[in-house]
Design brief:
GO molecular function, one term: rRNA (uridine-N3-)-methyltransferase activity
Distance between the termini: 41 Å
CATH topology: Rossmann fold
Helix content: 25-40%
Order of helices and strands: EEEHEHHEEHEHEE
InterPro entries: BMT5-like (IPR019446)
Pfam families: BMT5-like (PF10354)
Largest sheet: 7 strands, mixed
Radius of gyration: 16 Å
Strand order of the largest sheet: 5-4-3-6-7-9-8
GO biological process, one term: rRNA base methylation
Protein name: 25S rRNA (uridine-N(3))-methyltransferase BMT5-like domain-containing protein
Protein backbone atom coordinates (compact mmCIF):
# COMPACT_ATOMS: atom_id res chain seq x y z
CA UNK A 1 0.00 0.00 0.00
CA UNK A 2 1.40 3.37 -1.02
CA UNK A 3 2.11 5.72 1.88
CA UNK A 4 0.77 9.24 1.37
CA UNK A 5 3.49 11.89 1.28
CA UNK A 6 3.11 14.57 3.92
CA UNK A 7 2.81 18.05 2.40
CA UNK A 8 2.90 21.09 4.66
CA UNK A 9 2.13 24.77 4.69
CA UNK A 10 3.17 26.40 7.98
CA UNK A 11 1.03 24.88 10.78
CA UNK A 12 -1.00 22.66 8.45
CA UNK A 13 -0.56 19.48 6.43
CA UNK A 14 -2.51 17.22 4.11
CA UNK A 15 -2.96 14.50 6.72
CA UNK A 16 -4.94 16.74 9.07
CA UNK A 17 -8.70 16.99 8.81
CA UNK A 18 -9.20 20.77 8.69
CA UNK A 19 -12.36 22.85 9.10
CA UNK A 20 -12.11 26.46 7.90
CA UNK A 21 -14.71 28.92 9.17
CA UNK A 22 -15.65 32.41 8.00
CA UNK A 23 -13.93 32.24 4.64
CA UNK A 24 -14.25 35.37 2.50
CA UNK A 25 -13.41 34.53 -1.11
CA UNK A 26 -12.03 31.10 -0.07
CA UNK A 27 -8.50 32.11 -1.05
CA UNK A 28 -7.00 30.88 2.25
CA UNK A 29 -8.51 27.43 1.78
CA UNK A 30 -7.24 27.43 -1.78
CA UNK A 31 -3.74 28.39 -0.65
CA UNK A 32 -3.68 25.27 1.56
CA UNK A 33 -5.18 23.08 -1.16
CA UNK A 34 -2.60 24.16 -3.74
CA UNK A 35 0.22 23.50 -1.29
CA UNK A 36 -1.15 20.04 -0.53
CA UNK A 37 -1.98 19.24 -4.16
CA UNK A 38 -5.40 18.16 -2.93
CA UNK A 39 -8.26 19.44 -0.79
CA UNK A 40 -9.84 16.14 0.25
CA UNK A 41 -8.88 16.84 3.88
CA UNK A 42 -10.53 20.30 3.89
CA UNK A 43 -14.03 21.48 4.69
CA UNK A 44 -14.26 25.19 3.87
CA UNK A 45 -17.25 27.23 5.04
CA UNK A 46 -18.69 30.72 4.74
CA UNK A 47 -21.59 32.61 6.28
CA UNK A 48 -22.46 33.82 2.78
CA UNK A 49 -24.75 31.95 0.46
CA UNK A 50 -23.30 30.88 -2.87
CA UNK A 51 -25.13 33.76 -4.58
CA UNK A 52 -23.72 36.26 -2.06
CA UNK A 53 -20.21 34.90 -2.56
CA UNK A 54 -20.43 35.34 -6.33
CA UNK A 55 -21.90 38.83 -5.95
CA UNK A 56 -19.43 40.06 -3.34
CA UNK A 57 -16.09 38.57 -4.43
CA UNK A 58 -14.75 38.71 -7.97
CA UNK A 59 -12.63 35.58 -7.50
CA UNK A 60 -15.05 33.74 -5.22
CA UNK A 61 -16.70 31.54 -7.85
CA UNK A 62 -13.41 30.55 -9.49
CA UNK A 63 -11.78 29.81 -6.11
CA UNK A 64 -14.66 27.56 -5.04
CA UNK A 65 -14.68 25.74 -8.36
CA UNK A 66 -10.95 25.02 -8.08
CA UNK A 67 -11.36 23.87 -4.47
CA UNK A 68 -14.12 21.49 -5.46
CA UNK A 69 -12.04 20.09 -8.33
CA UNK A 70 -9.32 19.39 -5.76
CA UNK A 71 -11.83 17.51 -3.58
CA UNK A 72 -12.81 20.14 -1.01
CA UNK A 73 -16.23 20.07 0.62
CA UNK A 74 -17.46 23.70 0.41
CA UNK A 75 -20.41 24.57 2.66
CA UNK A 76 -22.31 27.87 2.49
CA UNK A 77 -24.52 29.53 5.10
CA UNK A 78 -22.53 28.36 8.13
CA UNK A 79 -23.01 30.49 11.24
CA UNK A 80 -20.28 30.00 13.87
CA UNK A 81 -22.87 30.10 16.65
CA UNK A 82 -24.82 27.17 15.25
CA UNK A 83 -22.34 25.29 13.09
CA UNK A 84 -22.51 22.16 15.27
CA UNK A 85 -26.06 21.65 13.93
CA UNK A 86 -24.81 21.51 10.33
CA UNK A 87 -24.84 17.76 9.75
CA UNK A 88 -22.50 17.98 6.76
CA UNK A 89 -19.76 19.30 9.07
CA UNK A 90 -19.59 15.90 10.77
CA UNK A 91 -19.95 14.70 14.33
CA UNK A 92 -18.23 15.91 17.48
CA UNK A 93 -14.45 15.67 18.03
CA UNK A 94 -13.87 15.20 14.29
CA UNK A 95 -11.25 17.76 13.28
CA UNK A 96 -7.52 18.06 13.83
CA UNK A 97 -7.69 21.81 13.14
CA UNK A 98 -10.50 24.36 13.20
CA UNK A 99 -9.45 27.74 11.76
CA UNK A 100 -11.04 31.20 11.86
CA UNK A 101 -8.97 33.96 10.25
CA UNK A 102 -9.61 37.55 11.34
CA UNK A 103 -13.05 37.14 12.93
CA UNK A 104 -15.09 40.33 12.78
CA UNK A 105 -18.71 41.04 13.68
CA UNK A 106 -19.11 43.76 11.05
CA UNK A 107 -18.98 47.53 10.90
CA UNK A 108 -22.48 48.42 12.07
CA UNK A 109 -21.82 48.70 15.79
CA UNK A 110 -19.54 51.73 16.11
CA UNK A 111 -15.83 52.42 16.16
CA UNK A 112 -13.40 49.61 16.90
CA UNK A 113 -12.24 51.08 20.22
CA UNK A 114 -15.76 51.46 21.66
CA UNK A 115 -16.75 48.99 24.37
CA UNK A 116 -20.02 48.02 22.68
CA UNK A 117 -18.16 47.20 19.47
CA UNK A 118 -15.53 45.16 21.27
CA UNK A 119 -18.28 43.24 23.08
CA UNK A 120 -19.93 42.39 19.74
CA UNK A 121 -16.66 41.01 18.45
CA UNK A 122 -16.13 39.04 21.66
CA UNK A 123 -19.59 37.55 21.35
CA UNK A 124 -18.72 36.33 17.86
CA UNK A 125 -15.41 34.81 18.98
CA UNK A 126 -16.96 33.11 22.01
CA UNK A 127 -19.69 31.65 19.81
CA UNK A 128 -17.04 30.27 17.48
CA UNK A 129 -14.99 28.86 20.34
CA UNK A 130 -18.01 27.18 21.93
CA UNK A 131 -18.88 25.47 18.64
CA UNK A 132 -15.28 24.69 17.66
CA UNK A 133 -14.64 23.03 21.02
CA UNK A 134 -17.30 20.45 20.19
CA UNK A 135 -15.92 19.79 16.71
CA UNK A 136 -12.17 19.62 17.38
CA UNK A 137 -10.39 16.51 18.62
CA UNK A 138 -9.28 16.27 22.23
CA UNK A 139 -5.88 17.59 23.25
CA UNK A 140 -4.40 14.11 23.64
CA UNK A 141 -5.31 13.45 20.00
CA UNK A 142 -3.68 16.66 18.84
CA UNK A 143 -6.75 18.81 18.17
CA UNK A 144 -6.19 22.57 17.90
CA UNK A 145 -8.34 25.64 17.35
CA UNK A 146 -6.60 28.48 15.50
CA UNK A 147 -7.71 32.12 15.51
CA UNK A 148 -5.74 34.64 13.44
CA UNK A 149 -6.14 38.09 14.95
CA UNK A 150 -4.54 41.51 15.09
CA UNK A 151 -2.55 42.09 18.27
CA UNK A 152 -2.37 45.88 18.53
CA UNK A 153 -4.90 48.21 20.18
CA UNK A 154 -7.90 48.18 19.97
CA UNK A 155 -7.95 44.57 18.75
CA UNK A 156 -5.85 43.50 21.71
CA UNK A 157 -8.82 44.48 23.90
CA UNK A 158 -10.77 41.48 22.63
CA UNK A 159 -8.70 39.43 25.13
CA UNK A 160 -8.69 36.15 23.20
CA UNK A 161 -6.89 34.24 25.96
CA UNK A 162 -9.62 35.13 28.46
CA UNK A 163 -12.39 34.34 25.98
CA UNK A 164 -10.84 30.93 25.41
CA UNK A 165 -10.62 30.19 29.11
CA UNK A 166 -14.33 30.98 29.48
CA UNK A 167 -15.08 28.38 26.80
CA UNK A 168 -12.82 25.66 28.20
CA UNK A 169 -9.86 26.35 25.93
CA UNK A 170 -6.22 26.89 26.84
CA UNK A 171 -4.02 29.22 24.81
CA UNK A 172 -0.95 27.07 24.20
CA UNK A 173 0.89 29.21 21.64
CA UNK A 174 0.85 32.55 19.85
CA UNK A 175 2.80 32.72 16.59
CA UNK A 176 3.35 35.75 14.38
CA UNK A 177 1.14 35.63 11.28
CA UNK A 178 2.66 36.63 7.93
CA UNK A 179 0.38 37.01 4.93
CA UNK A 180 3.10 36.04 2.46
CA UNK A 181 3.41 32.60 4.04
CA UNK A 182 0.13 31.72 2.30
CA UNK A 183 0.54 32.33 -1.45
CA UNK A 184 -2.65 33.54 -3.09
CA UNK A 185 -4.42 34.39 0.18
CA UNK A 186 -6.23 37.70 0.04
CA UNK A 187 -7.82 38.72 3.33
CA UNK A 188 -11.18 40.46 2.94
CA UNK A 189 -13.19 43.10 4.80
CA UNK A 190 -16.38 41.23 3.98
CA UNK A 191 -18.81 43.96 4.98
CA UNK A 192 -20.27 47.41 4.34
CA UNK A 193 -19.98 47.43 0.57
CA UNK A 194 -16.24 46.78 0.70
CA UNK A 195 -16.48 43.00 0.82
CA UNK A 196 -13.77 42.39 -1.76
CA UNK A 197 -11.31 44.92 -0.33
CA UNK A 198 -8.32 43.74 1.67
CA UNK A 199 -7.18 45.39 4.89
CA UNK A 200 -3.69 45.79 6.36
CA UNK A 201 -3.09 42.91 8.77
CA UNK A 202 -0.41 44.87 10.63
CA UNK A 203 0.87 42.95 13.62
CA UNK A 204 -1.16 39.77 13.80
CA UNK A 205 -0.78 36.34 15.34
CA UNK A 206 -2.14 32.84 15.07
CA UNK A 207 -3.57 32.08 18.51
CA UNK A 208 -3.52 28.32 19.09
CA UNK A 209 -5.94 26.82 21.60
CA UNK A 210 -6.48 23.30 22.91
CA UNK A 211 -9.28 21.87 25.01
CA UNK A 212 -8.94 22.04 28.77
CA UNK A 213 -9.68 18.60 30.25
CA UNK A 214 -10.85 20.04 33.56
CA UNK A 215 -13.48 22.27 31.95
Amino acid sequence: MEVQETKRLKHYNNKQKILLVGEGDFSFSLSLARAFGSATNLIATSLDSQAELERNYKNGKANVEELERLGCNVVFGVNVHSMTTKHNLGCSATYDRVIFNFPHAGFDYGREHEIKTIMRHQELVRGFMKSARLLVKDEDKGGEIHVVHKTEYPFSEWKLKTLGEKEGLELVSEIEFCLNHYPGYSNKRGSRGYNDSSFPVGKSSTFIFKKQFFY
